[in-house]
Design a protein that fits this description.
Largest sheet: 2 strands, antiparallel
Distance between the termini: 73 Å
Order of helices and strands: HEEHH
Strand order of the largest sheet: 1-2
Strand content: 5-15%
Shape: elongated
Number of strands: 2
Length: about 90
């Protein structure tokens, strides 16, 4: 096992529990330092991100939900040809 230098220890303290990126100056290869607990969660696929959902993630979830309830059913194609309701039309038809 390798002991952390004072510089890396300080970077970890300053990172506020986010992974610390290191660069090998000879190869320019980047590495990430993270706690064993975080590494084990990621390795086991139990990584949870409670950050805001991105637009891409939202779109993917909407597509997945639509497909799961049958929106890809050929019988639903009739709705593609419907004339959309205008804003000035009554909503109580």
């Amino acid at each position: 096992m390798i002991t952390l230098s004072k510089e890396i220890q300080q970077a970890i303290k300053d990172s506020q529990e986010t992974p610390v990126r290191l660069v090998d100056p000879e190869t320019n290869v980047e590495y990430v330092v993270l706690s064993v607990e975080t590494f084990e969660r990621m390795r086991k696929g139990v990584y949870y991100d409670d950050g805001p959902i991105t637009e891409e993630e939202q779109t993917a979830l909407l597509v997945e939900m639509g497909l799961s309830i049958g929106w890809d059913d050929p019988e639903m194609d009739v709705y593609n040809d419907m004339v959309p309701r205008r804003d000035d039309e009554s909503s109580t038809r």
